Amino acid sequence: MNRLPGIVRQHLAALRMLIVFTIVCGIAYPLVMVGVSQVVFHNQANGSLVSYKGKVVGSSLLCQEFTDAKGNPLPQYFQPRPSEAANPESKTDYGCDPLFSGASNLGPDNPILVQDIKERQQQIAAFDHVKISQIPADAVTTSGSGLDPDISPANAYMQVDRVAAARHASPAAIRALVAQFVQGRTLGFLGEPRVDVLTLNIALDEKYPASGS
Amino acid sequence: MNSSLAGWLQVALLVAALAACYVPLGNYMARIFGGTGGSSPRASNSTTDKHLRAERAIFRLTGIDPDADQKWSTYVRSLLAFSAVSVLFLYGFERLQRYLMLSLHMANVPPALSWNTAASFVTNTNWQNYSGESTMGYAVQMAGLAVQNFMSAAVGLCVAMAMIRGFTRSRTDKLGNFWVDLTHCVVRLLLPLSIIAGLILIAGGAVENLTAYHAVNTLAGGHQTIVGGPVGSQEAIKDLGNNGGGFYNANSSHPFENPNPFTNWFEIFLLLLIPFSTPRAFGKMVKDNRQGYALLAVMVIIWLAAVGGISFFEGQHAGVAPQLAHSAMEGKEVAFGGPGSSLFAASTTTTSTGSVNSFHDSFTPFGGGIALFDIALGEIAPGGIGAGMYGILVLAIVTVFVAGLMVGRTPEYLGKKIRPTEMKYAALYFLTLPTIILTSAGLSLGLKIGTSRIDNPGPHGLTEIMYAFTSMANNNGSAFAGLGTNTTWYNTVGGIVMLLGRFAPEIFALGLAGSLARQQPVPASAGTLDTRKPLFVGMLIAVILVLVGLTYFPALALGPFAEGLH
């Protein structure tokens, strides 16, 4: 070993160092963390999955699409934000696909983004019978992840009348349900108030089943 | 409570938490790297007192003599050898992915992308030209990429500590032992902190499993694939080590990486924790805590200005699309909102982290412009782990030099004279990055292969290319991701830019340290600029803004300024 030239010795030491730390930091560390988490934080470690009628229907941390097979929004469900997380090569992937997380990356003056926002505003105005000036920003913009599970409380309340009509329920009852699902800021000042769409929709299906669903 | 007041309370809690960690963590780091040596030359020159049993085992396994003190040139050679082997190892890992266990049947990563990713993770950049969930299986993520999250962070801190030894040691040509510093940094600092931080993130909702992707039937009767991975453990070191490479494409905006407002705050805390505590370690090691406070003051002022600036412009939501939507929410999550996204953006770009919880390309012109400016300043406030410290020390040397010119005296810093040799290293240090950035960005703008993948028209497209090379050369890793950079050109040139932007400055910093360590300290006199006083703090900020900031002014004027002022 000591007869090798210095430069070769340096690189051999480097390689051995890297192998040791690959075992320590790259194999032992994550495996121990997975082991501990699976026991202590089982629910979180597996993606905060939520069930309906005994079957896992998704994760409370991931948005999902509430659309028919053609991508039209279903009026009986609260709708998530527009999503960029879709397979660009598929015509039936409308968003919220965790295999394609990501953002639009369109700049603030990009005409494509301006056009997208205008179209979304018109669709929502027609779908929910609201004025364009009443539509909150989160309803017409895509999130960074494309998987945003939340909408703003204003966005949720905007959808109440339409959901109530589709389920033949009273708007006041649906509004009261939404109020139960509004999460305030953590500790009163961290983050923004929000509503988790999937858990709200599950509660909706449990309490006010839509005819035919 | 309105959103902006809540946002500032969030900042206040962050400042309080970082302040509480400043002394204990800084002192601990100083102890790890041997700053507590006694007054005898031998003790003050020794790297550390003793090694843990695990560390001795590592030295035995790797055949390293932990008592061998290295000259600066040997230190550099060890560092370069380790990094070269790391690039090759990681490249091979990616190229052979489909033969590995836990790879989720993902294909081998193509050559140009493997090269770019290997260079990216070894240089602590974590620029990503791939989408994690569809390109990198669990094996490459945890045993390849995440290992470099630890090691590249440790390398940065090693250089900073060796540089500080340049001030604390005298009449020696030895700066410590790279292998010992590297081992101590991982075993005593990064690994224990990652375990704690990882468990907190997982308790908060970050996923941590080795389950294969599986489909579920959604509530409305569709299908959705639930992804998995050892995410929480990787997330911890990603933020703590200022790496920034996301497990998934959406990085820290992905709910499985960053599930809620608390984890969002905690991740920002993690990425600022070590950089903001390093000035304490420095103060402790040079036996004058007020020297540390002076550098801390510079860092805090610049960081707060960045936080305030981005928060302000995002709140104003200028730009056609944000005005139309009534808020700059494109590329942001509801749970984090404007303030939580702006705070993250300012903190990830003033450190060399580059993880994002919102997409900078969709920020308002000036909000995104400040993010770019933060990186262009060289990430010294507080900067990346270690890199921020040696970066600000070089600029502190330049500052005392400028001050010395004003009064016509030989400048000195911490008792060491700043002579022509030191200034040559310092000048080389701060000329490297503008040269790399402006050359590579200029070439990309002049060539069709560089401009053909711009996603956004007008000045924004120029900003995308400037941001890409500024981010890569400064080892940040965040992006204006509308630029399609998974091309042979950007992969190849980007890899070179990241390596040059990391190792050339490190070599100059260590050369500077070697030159300082040889000097006999000189006693302070009436003419010495007191580097513990507000005057010095102000001068250092001015030097940073003038020397570094103005270099990029023309490019900033044509990009974000042109976009924001039209």
List the helices and strands and how they pair.
The complex is a heterodimer of chains A (213) and B (566).
Chain A: H1 6-40, H2 42-45, E1 49-52, E2 55-59, H3 111-128, E3 150-151, H4 153-158, H5 160-167, H6 171-181, E4 182-183, E5 194-196, H7 197-207
Helix pairs in contact in A: 5-6, 6-7
Chain B: H1 3-32, H2 41-45, H3 53-62, E1 70-71, H4 72-95, H5 111-122, H6 132-135, H7 138-168, E2 174-176, H8 178-204, E3 214-217, E4 223-226, H9 231-240, H10 261-285, H11 289-316, H12 320-325, H13 337-350, H14 365-376, H15 387-407, E5 412-413, E6 416-417, H16 420-446, H17 448-451, H18 459-473, H19 488-517, H20 534-548, H21 553-565
Antiparallel strand pairs in B: 1-2, 3-4, 5-6
Helix pairs in contact in B: 1-10, 1-13, 3-8, 4-5, 4-7, 4-19, 5-19, 7-8, 7-15, 7-19, 8-9, 8-10, 9-10, 10-11, 10-13, 11-13, 11-14, 11-20, 13-14, 14-18, 14-21, 15-16, 15-20, 16-18, 16-19, 18-21
The major beta sheet of chain B can be summarized as:
2 strands, antiparallel
Unreliable segments of 5+ consecutive residues of chain B: 35-48
> What is the H-and-E element order of chain A?
HHEEHEHHHEEH
| Number of structural domains of chain B | 1
Structural class estimated from helices and strands of chain A: mainly alpha
Strand content of chain A: 5-15%
For the largest beta sheet of chain B, what order do the strands appear in spatially? 1-2
Reading side by side through the largest sheet of chain A, how are the strands ordered? Answer: 3-5-4
Question: What characteristic shape of chain A results from the CA principal axes?
Answer: elongated
Largest interface: A-B, 99 and 117 residues
Note the total helix count of chain B.
Answer: 21
What is the general shape of chain B? globular
Output the helix-strand order of chain B: HHHEHHHHEHEEHHHHHHHEEHHHHHH
* Largest beta-sheet details of chain A: 3 strands, antiparallel
Number of helices of chain A: 7
Q: What proportion of the residues of chain B form beta strands (DSSP E)?
A: under 5%
Task: Give the helix level of chain B as a range of percent.
Answer: 55-70%
Which structural class matches the secondary elements of chain B? mainly alpha
Rg measurement of chain B, Å: 23 Å
First-last Cα distance of chain A:
74 Å
